[in-house]
Amino acid sequence: MTHDAVFIENKRKYLFCADQHGMKLLSDVMEQSSEKEFFRFEEEPDWTSFTSFLEKQKIGSYLYVSLPKSEIYQARVLAEKLGFSEETAQFIGYGENVVRVFCSRCHSINKTVEEQREILCQQCVLELSISDHYSKKHNAYLGYAAKL
Amino acid sequence: MYKEKTIPVYIKNIEEVTKYVKRFTLASIEGKQLPRFSGGSHISTYLETAKGLLVRTYSLTSHPDVTSHYQIAVRLNDQSKGGSLYWHNNIKAGDKIQISYPKNQFPLSFKAKHHVFYAAGIGITPFLSMMKELKDKGSSFELHYASKNLEFCAFYEDLNKHYPHQCRCYFSNQNKRIQTRSLENHHVGTHVYFCGPEAFINEFTSAAYRVGFHESAVHFERFHPPQPKNAAPFQVQLKDGTLIQVKKDETLLQALQNQGIEAPYSCQAGRCGTCELSVKEGEIDHYDSFLSEEQRNAQDRILTCVSRGKSSKLVIEI
């Protein structure tokens, strides 16, 4: 989800869903597209509106989404739930690589930058060591108690 | 002749569905439960006739969870070479036959958010078990069903009774023909399924790709494999050096069987891959829908039930 957008020819319609910066990243592809429709994300993504926008789309639509890396996974999960697939969508993440950490004690999700190995859980203040056990369900790495 | 593992059944009931379609209920002779199957499955039926063994495949039309019996529907084919004619004229209640275990080369996609079935004529049959399965699961689906007229529209009443909001029928005698443009109205996440005559499947699959359906969302089942336009006779050489002639109006599989060779096979429609044999020499004309493009180009394997020699001689591994 970090590559550049690639234009795919001969689609009935092109959908561009992005925030302000994301729209800039998709501008080259936009120029090559004929029939197109836009969904603009605000700073705090409105996932309900995004879902409604995708739900009404018909077969032959091709989707481009560009958002910060911290949000792009959620966009992908929603789009795939509605039937978009690798063959019909591209997801372009930008910015700092944010890692989600699942707290083993309170089960809350913490967000942190990739380089950090230990964090404090924002919910229960437990010191967490970030493991390499990844959960697809939570889109997060498991955080163990750092000190026993 | 090669024969797969079979289940002995008897004909429990025969119903006339339309003038040309009969529904047969099959139950286990031994009183055992039959295997459960998945929507879209079919069985091979083995009929011992005076002219020899007739093997024909039919979609299971009963509920996939019902294991006390199976049901199939057989349309009397105008050009029947014995299969449907035998079912209609010779099979009686109480007759015993052998059937294969259920097989599925036309399964429902677990990725689909909405399933759309397009049937023409007796092409309705695989969709009957699929719709039963989907209704139980609470999944979203719809059916577009083309027939000449109401009289010939098999299962019309059943369909309208059980799926009043999902079925749409098109009768050509009322000038209501099923149109490919309805494909344009489906939403993202839809998978389409086609079953009917060759021309119907070709028209709808081409239209689906044109509209923008990805090939993974397009599913179809043919009654018969695509027919070679100008089939020519050819020769095959077996492992022991034996030469066999394949006439222009017979398949390689039939030619092998006529010589008493136990060549493997199952669907006889180029879909399942059971009959695949290695080819050591010669060029192949592929007519199956099983091998990948890469495998076809390698020219080193053949599905004997449908494919033929492009060169005048093939050397095969059997």
UniProtKB/TrEMBL annotation, chain A:
Residues 100-143 form the Dimethylamine monooxygenase subunit DmmA-like C-terminal domain. InterPro entries: DmmA-like_C. This is Dimethylamine monooxygenase subunit DmmA-like C-terminal domain-containing protein. It comes from Fictibacillus barbaricus.
TrEMBL record, chain B:
Gene3D superfamilies: 3.10.20.30, Nucleotide-binding domain of ferredoxin-NADP reductase (FNR) module, Translation factors. Keywords: 2Fe-2S, Flavoprotein, FMN, Iron, Iron-sulfur, Metal-binding, Oxidoreductase. Its cofactor is FMN. Transmembrane segments: none annotated. It comes from the Bacteria. InterPro entries: 2Fe-2S_ferredoxin-like_sf, 2Fe-2S_ferredoxin-type, 2Fe2S_fd_BS, Benzoxazolinone_Detox_Enz, Beta-grasp_dom_sf, Cbr1-like_FAD-bd_dom, DmmA-like_N, FAD-bd_FR_type. PROSITE patterns: 2FE2S_FER_1, 2FE2S_FER_2, FAD_FR. It holds the Pfam family Fer2. Residues 234-318 form the 2Fe-2S ferredoxin-type domain. Residues 4-109 form the FAD-binding FR-type domain. This is Ferredoxin-NADP reductase. It comes from Fictibacillus barbaricus.
